Amino acid sequence: MDTRKNKEGLIGRKAYALLLVLGGGACLAIAMQGLLSFALPTQAGTSVNNNANEAKEEIRTAKIVNPFDGLSLEARAVYVLELKTGSVLFAKNENKKLPLASVTKIMTTFVARDQFSPNVVVTITRDDLMADGDSGLHSGERWRLGDILDVMLIASSNDAAHAIAGFVGANGYPDETHADIARANFVHMMNEKASELKLDQMQFFNESGLDVSFPHSSQLAQVSILEQGGGYGSARNVADLFAELWKKYPETIEITAHKNARIISSDEIAHILPNTNEIVGNIPGLVASKTGFTNISGGNLAVIFDRGIGDPIVVVVLGSSYKGRFDDMQKLVDATRK
């Protein structure tokens, strides 16, 4: 019995020793593998972390470049608005009340379309042709309202504006003997519309935006002639009005995105008219534009263009020079696209 136990004990001790040897080697191998696998990721992770920290530092210290910074502009007032979000991209004296010149015709268009269908017929009178400028209209010539609005907008026709105001102000029944009353009524409607839209700086004295003159008596009883703009408003007001007109009557201002247009009256008389916006072909995605210039206002320009699909931008320039309004606008449009 003792001999068998001794043999079994000896066998057990040898087996245990063998297991220790084998187990120790395996543990050592596992331990080495673990050390290697742990060490390598740590080095890689350190490298990644260092690179990430360096990148964060570069971002933190990098100067954010505003594309509008440093622009040299002649305009007294500027407003650039992203219509989709309502974000103001750039502004300069945007709430300052300034003369609008023919940018006034944006409101003329709005009031006319609010009151009448584009299919009603407007007849040009001799009195209409007395307005400053000549866009080739004829006394007695008949026009669809939609078409005569096209003439007014693309060519900035004062004759057309005169005819539209006389027609709408007379509720569609113009009478040459009461034409002044009808146009005064139309201007009243323009000012009411400005109030309705909460365009607080807008004020109109005629339908065209032409400068107006009136006598003024001083304390010394001397009578002098004073001049003022035919319409006033801020760059912000113009942007809001133009955007609202585009949303409500987009087809009415579509003509202003073209370099020229061939427009035919109801009497089958064709009129080929160039756009008063000289850079109409230099603004990709142009949706609408309206120019304005008088001696009092200087150069004005308002445009709506698509920066991308479904990303309309409205830009307004007021109080620049005749040529400067186009240069200013081009700089602003280019900056908006950067």
Automatic annotation (TrEMBL):
Ranges for domain Peptidase S11 D-alanyl-D-alanine carboxypeptidase A N-terminal: 72-320
GO molecular function: beta-lactamase activity; serine-type D-Ala-D-Ala carboxypeptidase activity
UniProt entry keywords in alphabetical sequence: Cell shape, Cell wall biogenesis/degradation, Hydrolase, Membrane, Peptidoglycan synthesis, Signal, Transmembrane, Transmembrane helix
Annotated transmembrane regions: 15-40
Endpoints of the signal sequence: none
Residues binding substrate: K290
Entry keyword Cell wall biogenesis/degradation: yes
GO biological process: beta-lactam antibiotic catabolic process; cell wall organization; peptidoglycan biosynthetic process; proteolysis; regulation of cell shape; response to antibiotic
Active-site residues, as the UniProt record annotates them: S102 (acyl-ester intermediate), K105 (proton acceptor), S156
Similarity annotation: Belongs to the peptidase S11 family.
PANTHER family listed in its UniProt record: BETA-LACTAMASE (PTHR35333), BETA-LACTAMASE-TYPE TRANSPEPTIDASE FOLD CONTAINING PROTEIN (PTHR35333:SF3)
Protein name: Peptidase S11 D-alanyl-D-alanine carboxypeptidase A N-terminal domain-containing protein
